[in-house]
Amino acid sequence: MKQEQNTIKCWKCGEALDISEALYKDVEGRLRAELAVESALRERELVREVGEKVRGEIGIEVATLKEELDQKSLQLQEFNQAKSEVERLRREKAELRDEISLEKERELTEQLRIEKAKMRINVEDEFTFRIKELEKKLEDQQKLADERET
Question: What is the pTM of this model?
Answer without folding.
Answer: 0.43
